[in-house]
Amino acid sequence: MSKELTETQKKILLYIVEHINAKGYPPTLSDIALNFNYRNRATVQQHLKALEKKNYITRTRNLSRSIEVNDRNNLYVSRPVVGEVAAGNPLLIYQDVVDSVDLPALANLPKNSFLLRVKGSSMKDAFILENDVIIVKPDGVYKQGELVVAIVDDSAVIKRIYEDDEYIRLVSENPEFTPIIVHRKSKNFRVIGSVLGLYRTLEAGRKRRLHRSS
Amino acid sequence: MSKELTETQKKILLYIVEHINAKGYPPTLSDIALNFNYRNRATVQQHLKALEKKNYITRTRNLSRSIEVNDRNNLYVSRPVVGEVAAGNPLLIYQDVVDSVDLPALANLPKNSFLLRVKGSSMKDAFILENDVIIVKPDGVYKQGELVVAIVDDSAVIKRIYEDDEYIRLVSENPEFTPIIVHRKSKNFRVIGSVLGLYRTLEAGRKRRLHRSS
DNA sequence: AAAAATACCATACATTTGTATGGTATTAAA
DNA sequence: TTTAATACCATACAAATGTATGGTATTTTT
Q1: Hey, what CATH class is A7-70 in?
Q2: pTM exceeding the 0.90 threshold for the entire prediction
Q3: Of A60, A104, B97, B137, which sits 20 to 30 A from A71 (CA to CA)?
């Protein structure tokens, strides 16, 4: 079993994880020293040794940026959820982010994508459940048939988008729903972004449950 | 727009991505040189320059391992799917892996977990669809209420597991299904592993569709 | 046919990076 | 209270790493 970490060690470990998520590679000793205003790398070295001894990281000697974070599974990084979508309602973007999800540290999200929590079970036809968190990339570009978050007449929908020269069709996964068709130039229509993926906690013992049996 | 890559450049880019996935950090020039049997790093440097010019990677000068792969969204890495689960059927583990999924390169799966493709729509009650790929961690340990893949009487199921001193209950997400209850010591029962997550392609234009309308 | 891009080599050099050693001060454990 | 562990400092050094330059040979483009 790995022992308890001290405050400083925790901070450094977190910094490492977030550096990896942000930049795509672990920091060097200098990076860490700089971040914590250490005047030299030797200090960092000692903390890393401690972290390694306590089995939180693994390093390869003499190799730069060779910090591997062990047990990344149980390491969660808190990420802000910037808003909510619920079919029928307008899209909600919070001014001050209060809500957040703990995503596995290994979920390395693309830059400038953001997270939205799905409210209401009305997305069920797209097999997206209440409280699922969807990853949205706010690009103006989207391919034919891509799943997008769109605002139609002030209401949010998650649908597949198809467009031709004149019309845009928003199609549900469920064939029973008739497609929404709007003019390209319609002012009551706006694509927020494309849905890159969804995150759903399948583990037990975490905040939410898929079903709260009646 | 980024231009076409040459064969060598493609190989090197792929090596970089896989190095990142395997080790958690990008390779150095030496690493790459070693892998491709180059006698020096200068050669690699030139290829990297080309890759950077064509906008496939970004580097920070003088910084070790600072290769960032741009556009990781559209970069897919092929990963083996080692088997299939379908409720009612026994678990299938292929001897020779033929099937594979292209996972986004950024999906950095935990070591020793494996992928299973879900067959049949009978997992629908757990909101897992046909052809979804689930990520299974073959640990012996599982928590109360965790979603697991289990074999009961030679049939595979994906259910939440609860156990007490005597019995093990396998509960479906859907309350209409009555739980399966087995004795702890039952020989006809085995937990394969816990389901860490599921991967479902939401993008259009890729191999599979969620629904093939009738 | 000439120019440009590609794919490699070798060697030299400056920086970055990790490591080692020795020191001070504070807090926690035996 | 003595010993560990923690948290920092400074300086020195070797290994790893990125870069620069100049060269040859082959393929692709103009």
Answers
A1: mainly alpha
A2: no
A3: B97
